[in-house]
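Researcher: Here's the sequence for the chain we discussed earlier.
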Amino acid sequence: MEQEGSRKWRLEQLLRRQKSKQKISYGLLFDECIEALGVDVVILSEETSERIRNELTIAYSFTPWGRIDWNYTVNKRNLRLEIDLMPALNSMNMDTGFPIYVIWGGDYPVLQTNLQKVLSALDDVLAVDFDTFVYCPSNYVIEFYHEGEITLGIERSDNFEYPRKHTKND
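Model: Thanks. This is the structure I predict for it:
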């Protein structure tokens, strides 16, 4: 009888160990996005993802339906095409070399990568979930709304400091 309980305990331990080895899957579209972004993309832990999401919601006001409330952002631009993003950032002397975070509206982990990689794999990034945010802390946020709107926000209404490119005039 004791041997049977011991065997059951060992089987439960093996099952727990096996489950812990299994990779968490977020679906085919998420996997394709990771593959399209290539190397140097970091899938953040659940805790770190939550911290980054909280930073975004503190940095920018949100509507009850999950969009950024652009009425509280001093400098924003509505863009027609994603190809307009880099010229818009460059015209504002924004440094696009900082790491960025990709945040989706769903329960996906946050990704850390760079803006150029996101723009080169944008179709795969946007396919993961309806609404997507590209967030560069203390710098800018790009909201890709599911109805096709692209909005670039440069600073909040409380005028926090954000990094800019140094120009010859500085």
